[in-house]
Amino acid sequence: MRVYSQLLVLALTSSVIFTISASEIVQSKGHFVDKFRQLEESLPTPNDYRNAAGEPGKEYWQQQVDYKINVTLDEEKRRIEGEQVITYHNNSPYTLKYLWLQLEQNRFKSDSIAERSSTFYGVDGSVSATNTYGDNAFAKISLQDLRRQQFLADNNLGYQITAVTDTNKKPLKYTIVGAQMRVDLPTALGQNQSTQLRINYGYNILEEDAVGARSGFEHFPDDDRKGGNDIFLLAQWFPRVASYSDYEAWHNKEFLGSGEFTLEFGNYDVSMTVPSDHIVTATGVLQNSKKVLSSEQLKRLDKAKKADKPVFIVSEDEAIANESSTAKGNKTWHFKADNVRDFAWASSRKFIWDAQGYQQKDSNNPHVMAMSFYPKEGGELWQRYSTASIIHTLKVYSRFTFDYPYPAAISVNGPVGGMEYPMISFNGPRTIWHDDDSRTYTLSEKQFLIGVVIHEVGHNYFPMIVNSDERQWTWMDEGINSFLDGIATREWDPNLSWGREPSDVIEYMKSNVQVPIMTQSDSVLQLGPNAYIKPAVALNILREVILGRELFDFAFQEYSNRWMNKRPTPSDFFRTMEEASGVDLDWFFRGWFYSTDHVDISLDRIYKLRLDTNNPDIDFERRRQDYQGKPMPYSVERNQQSGQKSWVELNSDNLDYHDQHDQFSVTNKERNKYNKKHAELDEWEQQVLPRAIKEDKNYYVFNFSNLGGLVMPILLELTFENGNTESLVLPAEIWRRSPFEVSKLIVTDKDNILVSAVVDRRGETADVDIENNYYPRQIIPSRIEAFKEEERKGNQYRDIMHDNKEALEEPEIKVKKK
């Protein structure tokens, strides 16, 4: 039997013996969980449309839908009337008998699935409508909810479809199903064929502040104009053909509010007729600038193309003067946009307009106009930061993906807090008005504006160009975009708090309202943490911890370019990131995207061990020193302190052999046994063992527990007695054979004596419990706040006799300006 080659024996200083062998860890029957099971088992089978590398396959196809639209904005009625011609190109290998269109405005009708399936939430956001107050239970409803109910009840909402015909105005059969419409084609549409249809429609525009939508109008009753003014943000404003794809056929999931949309690329030719004193901005390029802009505005716009800071096309003074305009008549603004998946626009006489050109190296699109439109309420905040944030976004995002392919990038201030469309975004932060007519803004509003502009402009890349399905997989655009906007905000100002770091997702990941990231958007319980923050943090960790920047950036750019102007699915992203990086990431994507596990790695204990030499003259003396180093029992210590002598001490002249020797005394029998075993060692073993004994290194066994279920690398920081520190990364694969508990042997030089260790000291893996990361355990800093106990309330505590003596006062009503 080869003693040393088969078994390495390490001794604890407490003389407990541990044996570490190469045998596999035995798991209890029924408890095995394979956290490293290959993701391919769950992903769709690769095919000629999407191959196993995550690329578009050799037979990849997608549809094209072109629109020619004429629309009129009735400001007084706050209504849209439109007529559009749709040209549908069937590039699929399948024959289509009908087309499905999205009618998102129908989502706000009282009989819509969205309204009828909405649930009641208390003011505190809890699912339960009741709150206990003494012995009584009551429900709460906010004034905002009441305002919404009243607006929906007082207004006729949703589309009024007045005609669906072919281009010869021959009626086509159509069926409206909630927020969708099926148009039956008179002749089935074969591969590489196209068809046209004409739709006439109208709808009443939502008041966004009342309803809470992705578009609508905002009213300014205090403007110096009879009846006040409005800002109109128009999106999801025309019937749009739903997507038809290789992996789902018709994308006709009902619009319920959370799931945004997925659309086809196409060319848009749109004419918007608005009041003559309005300023309009939209997706695309203005075609009739000489008709709708003054000569001075045209000069300013030309100057802005090469300016090094924003140039006012419409100044603040001009916009304020325009607020009181009583001009009559209408004006038509004509825009065109090529190869975009949607079209949005904004219109108001209140707009200040500034612009600055952005130059990039792309020979196909070297010049981009960054532009901002905002009322005086945006003030200095918007003047300073909106257009600057647009340009910063283009610089950062293009570095990680591709050069910006559109001619314009636009930020518009209005009632929508943040929403994105091709080339144009709606962003909400504003200044604060004071009684002296001055305006200021808080640090929070500044950070919000910069962050939201970066985020919404960044959506041009995801999903406006990399065209993912937002209704099914919200994280593919919101999560990926949030990851990139986190990079962009850190490059703007590292002190910006924008919620993309691992610590920002901890509370959500350990909560009981978490659902997998891959959950369909309308079924997610908390959309912000689930679709934005958690996937952004996951990608941040993948870049900074798992792959490193070089591998991640290469793979991410590969994904972006592969799917530019195409329609990727999650499997395409997962496969591309793994294939291009060359790293098995199935465990990472399965854990972070398909489960609700969280990260909680506990460093349970560390054993310090020393290599036994098996030479009794060395090992027995070590054990004697360990024994003598143990604390003395209280009874023995106090006997000595009192001067009490033991029997052995009192009878030193009458001691036997065992009194003169102890259990650590070496005998010749043990020496002979050692010599015999040493002689049986192979030549190489006789070289290895003496060297190990001479080096006398420190052997530490670390015991870890995975309490959260999510396997991750173990980031260790070791601190030694001499003050030095060392960082180690134990890869996630350490959990392969046991996802619950693992032990790791770490060997240090003789002089590097370990005094403490910590897992993930910098908080890079979203570990939810830092208390069990330290060994030895640390005092965890927190705070305590003194408070005054609240006075009891309730009807039985009212002093109605006293309160009724108080005089009745007429309330003073103040209207807060925005």
TrEMBL record:
Taxonomic lineage of the native organism: Bacteria, Pseudomonadati, Pseudomonadota, Gammaproteobacteria, Alteromonadales
Keyword Cell inner membrane in record: no
Gene3D superfamilies: Neutral Protease Domain 2
Domain Peptidase M1 membrane alanine aminopeptidase as annotated: residue spans: 396-592
Endpoints of the signal sequence: 1-22
CDD domains assigned to the protein according to its UniProt record, in alphabetical order: M1_APN_like
Protein name, UniProt field: Aminopeptidase
GO MF annotation list: aminopeptidase activity
Keywords per UniProt: Aminopeptidase, Hydrolase, Protease, Signal
Domain of life: Bacteria
Organism, scientific name: Shewanella ulleungensis
InterPro entries for the chain: Peptidase_M1_aminopeptidases, Peptidase_M1_dom, Peptidase_M4/M1_CTD_sf
